[in-house]
Structure prediction request, 436 residues.
Amino acid sequence: MSVWDSIVGQQQVVDQLTAVSTGDARGIAQSWLICGPAGSGTTQVARAFAAALESPDHGLSDTPTKTSAQILAGRFPDVVTLRTDKVTIGIDEVRELVTLSEQMPSTAPWRIIIIENTERMLERTTNVLLKEIEEPSPHTIWLLCAPSAQDVLPTIRSRTRLVTLGVPQPEQIAQYLEEHVTVEETADTRSSAAARKTGARKSSARQSKNGNNTAEKTAQSASAAPATAPRPVTHEVAARIARLCEGDLNVARLYAQYPSVLKDRDRLVANIVTMRRASQAVIFAGQLYGSAQSQAQDRAERAADERQQEFRTLNGLSADEPMPSELRRAYVALGKKDDIKRQATRLTRDVLERAFTTISSIYRDVAVFQNDAEESVGLINLENRNEIAELSTALTREQTVARLDAVAEARRRIAGNGNALLDVEALFCALLPASA
Prediction:
């Protein structure tokens, strides 16, 4: 398969970058800004472009070369990716990249540096990068990723070549899911029900210590269940996910791989459209927060396990072979509890952000009914059509907009490191009907 096969709905961009990678290397721009909305695949495009630039076949062969396979897997020494679990990208991290950019590539034609979430750079951090972006080392290419050009400083925009991604169409996403994604029902998704119980108990009393311990034991028991064998995504499920993901390919993959995460979404929508009392709001908020924490913790631990397994593979060690003393410190560092905790905190926010997008889609559908626009734009939450139609008559247009504003406010509070559980509870209470 070509290095571009994982890029969905971006044919114009693929054609553009393929022409660049197969052209005269002396004319290649060395500083790029790849922009696109969440889930459009900015990082994937950057990696594929890097593979096309570094690989002898320019990434066009049906069978990937060793070079392109390593780049796509994030294991190639001359292609470095900076990502962060923090709110901002640190100035010291960028300084290290600038120093690295001055070094000659070890095996490939280029040293390529990819920076995810460039918009998280503060101005003083950007200033460290500016000179290198403007006059890069002769053998270095910078690939910066951001949601949009407006999200980065003008000084960066003016020194880079802009590539803009579009939102993939539902048909393209559905086809990709059917052809490239398999269902992998694992422990983290099967434990979500236990996590919701844990969250509900934490929210209503932060009250019953014994109850929380019981729920945690239940979650641990669920996590011990064996995983089922991967299976293809059916056409019907792929089409439904393509509608619900709202153009976000990352969310589409998540829903397809882990059906229990999709069920959590269904449950969230059902809770919102039927919620009538403050007590329900608090309970449902606790369930959402507990599920987010559980999913995030399991994903962070799984990522640490994968890093350690990769370390073993690179050093020629089997899964049950003792770790040599000279490698033990580096091996243990890949699974540090502090790093897992920090990543879990970030991933919890990601799960909540996805939930906020789901809640916004409900009130988007309400607005569709209120403006008699179903035939022209359709519904996202088609399975809940009757409840949403009822909600559209219970709310005024102003109240619908106020609820969308409440979701935006919850996003801002959590992004500002507020108390996430309290913020979610406040949001759910704000969504209650006026008579509640």
Observations:
- The longest strand covers residues 140-146.
